[in-house]
Design a protein that fits this description.
Shape of chain B: globular
Chains: A mainly alpha (316), B mainly alpha (195), C alpha+beta (67)
Strand content of chain B: under 5%
Helix content of chain A: 40-55%
Radius of gyration of chain B: 20 Å
CATH superfamily of the largest domain in chain B: Cytochrome Bc1 Complex, Chain C
Order of helices and strands of chain A: EHHHHHHHHHHHHHHHH
Structural class of chain A: mainly alpha
Largest sheet of chain B: none
Radius of gyration of chain A: 30 Å
Largest sheet of chain A: none
CATH topology of the largest domain in chain B: Cytochrome Bc1 Complex, Chain C
CATH architecture of the largest domain in chain B: Up-down Bundle
Distance between the termini of chain A: 19 Å
Number of helices of chain A: 16
Strand content of chain A: under 5%
CATH class of the largest domain in chain B: Mainly Alpha
Number of strands of chain B: 1
Oligomer: heterotrimer
Number of strands of chain A: 1
Number of helices of chain B: 7
Chain lengths: 316, 195, 67
């Protein structure tokens, strides 16, 4: 379609922009006055340990025995052979890029934090020394037994659990005091802005997920679109979250990789609509344009041909 | 006088967008539908988003949790963002059904689509830096999708500092630049005529 | 519905700037099989469609210079 000069009408661009800005400002102010915005307090490790100590302890011991979400995640956090989602067959960008944010779950979430109170607790220091000097198989045995006891609702005590009972009790006390929250953010630098360890640890448990489920934020609840309370969320993410709800993606271990690949292709297609035969013809087949330009088709096309040539057609 | 770089840039800019095209006071008679106002409404919403965001940035990301004035500006930032996406999508629907890419306007569509796609991570990083339960859960969930695509190894949604700088600096600058390009293309090519 | 973490943050001096309509209450969702949408999002989507239709159908004011 070549650019053709059409008869012109009066148009005030600056006035239109000013009126639009005023209208949107008033609308925003009104919505803010009427509805405000949500602010559900974040979870702290202290709250987790206080309100769900069983879940906290089960998560902590899973970091030690290597069964936690983080421990089994693979790249970018941990070296786990074969871990990482496949887009198709055995093609995994995740594995190809590898571990870029290395986390040692046992050290990061249990041993290093406990080393802080151990500086003033000889008993804890001894427990940590016993644990760290024990053979890997023995450490694994202690952790597995402790985890099984927790599954039965029992806090394991006695020599068959090695130093774990005292370590876990100390970690629980440290968490409840709030000290573990700080310890998980601490590095060897003064200023801290990275909450990777804290959030991975919280995410390995069920407490945060249970709270999210109550707010309908889970993936299986179309959570990507939702906001806490009755606030509108991110409706524009409907197609991203839709795929997670339907087979085969709803039961696939590789759902994230597959869906993000699909969305990358669809996003590219969206950008390239003008170049895709068929898609670019939809407006012709579904003639909404006739309603949009009905006045023009009714009057201007019949009454006037192209007006005096002007450099381009100015417009809204 | 030998042409200067400045002179060449000025002449190219004026040739592409002479003042009467950059700031016209006429428009073709076929521009007579309310569907045409959604582009400027989207721009206006973006302006309110940027303003309210700037106010929030004045006192830092923790301010609004302890200040009712701060909470109000957070509300303005949220609702103007909702309005931004609302108007942008209606604008998108309108432009699609007008096949507004016709007449050498494909790049206008492309830049508009990129605006939409860039706005998504911009809003997403905003949710991540709220410092509330939403931020925690969105980060913990989103990391899986981003990790699966390889992006998460470098764009760590659990790294608050990184997400803060992406949301406040990098992504808004990118959005504003693409939006500016989009608007200048509309001015350059004019509004698409009816088929 | 139970709040997250420790509840909602509502600092002092909220009389003027607190919400007139509290959207933090019991969540309302529409659920049918695998389809689940919040009432809020549904309202937004319906408004978008409605506004789009109205924008096309509502007559645009004629300028004095128009034919």
């Amino acid at each position: 379609m070549t650019a053709v000069a059409y008869p012109q009408r009066r148009y005030d661009l600056v006035k239109e922009a000013t009126l639009a800005l005023a209208a949107v400002t008033i609308l925003t102010l009104a919505l803010s006055f009427v509805f405000s915005s949500p602010d559900v307090k974040p979870v702290t490790v202290a709250q987790w340990a206080t309100k769900a100590p069983h879940d906290f302890l089960a998560t902590a011991v899973s970091e030690l025995d290597g069964t936690s979400g983080t421990a089994t995640y693979g790249p970018p956090y941990t070296h786990v052979p074969g871990a990482g989602q496949n887009i198709v067959d055995h093609i995994s960008i995740e594995r190809a890029i590898g571990v870029q944010i290395p986390i040692d779950p046992a050290r990061a979430f249990v041993l290093e934090p406990l080393s802080i109170p151990a500086q003033t607790s000889p008993r804890l220091a001894l427990a940590l020394r016993i644990y760290e000097h024990a053979p890997a198989a023995e450490r694994q045995t202690w952790a597995t037994r402790f985890a099984r006891a927790l599954d039965r609702g029992v806090f394991g005590r006695g020599p068959r659990y090695g130093p774990l009972p005292f370590m876990m009790a100390s970690l629980l006390a440290m968490a409840r005091s709030g000290a573990l929250d700080g310890a998980l953010v601490t590095t060897n630098r003064f200023y801290q802005t990275n909450f990777t360890k804290s959030l991975l640890f919280l995410g390995d448990g069920s407490y945060l997920e249970d709270l999210a489920a109550r707010e309908n934020l889970l993936g299986s609840q179309w959570g990507m679109m939702n906001e806490t309370g009755n606030y509108p969320g991110q409706a524009w993410l409907w197609l991203y979250t839709f795929w997670y709800q339907v087979p085969p993606f709803s039961t696939s271990d590789d759902a994230d990789a597959q869906i993000w690949a699909i969305m990358a292709i669809l996003s590219l297609a969206f950008v390239c609509v003008p170049f895709i035969p068929g898609v670019r013809s939809i407006p012709l087949w579904v003639p909404v344009y006739r309603a949009i330009w009905r006045r023009y088709y009714r009057t201007a096309a019949a009454a006037a041909g192209p007006g005096p040539a002007e450099p381009g057609s100015a417009g809204a | 006088m030998k042409p200067t770089w400045t002179g060449r840039v000025r002449e190219a800019a004026v040739a592409a967008l002479p003042p009467e095209r950059l700031l016209p006071d006429t428009q073709p008679i076929y521009v007579s539908s309310w569907i045409y106002v959604f582009g400027v409404l989207t721009l206006a919403s973006l302006a309110v988003v940027l303003f309210s965001g700037a106010v929030l940035a004045l006192a830092g990301p923790a301010w609004w949790h302890g200040s009712s004035v701060g909470h109000f500006f957070n509300s303005m930032h949220l609702w103007s963002t909702e309005l931004f996406f609302f108007f942008m999508v209606v604008h998108l629907w309108g432009k699609f059904f007008m096949a507004a890419w016709r007449g050498r306007r494909a790049l206008t569509w492309v830049t508009g689509a990129i605006c939409f796609l860039l706005s998504i991570p911009t809003a997403f990083t905003g949710y991540l830096i709220q410092q509330n339960l939403d931020s925690q859960w969105i980060g913990v969930q989103a990391k899986d999708g981003l990790n699966a695509s390889g992006v998460g190894a470098f764009f760590n949604v659990l790294n608050y500092g990184q997400m803060l700088t992406w949301h406040v600096v990098l992504l808004p600058v990118a959005v504003v630049l693409i939006v500016a390009g989009h608007v200048l293309l509309v001015r350059r090519r004019g509004v698409v005529p009816p088929p | 519905m139970a709040a997250g973490g420790g509840g909602r943050t509502m600092p002092g001096m909220t009389a003027l700037l607190a919400a007139l309509i509290d959207l933090d209450g019991r969540q309302r969702y529409l659920h049918s099989g695998w389809f689940l949408i919040s009432v809020a999002n549904l309202v937004v989507v319906c408004l978008m469609i409605g506004v789009f239709v109205l924008a096309i159908l509502l007559p645009f004011p004629r300028d004095r210079g128009d034919e």
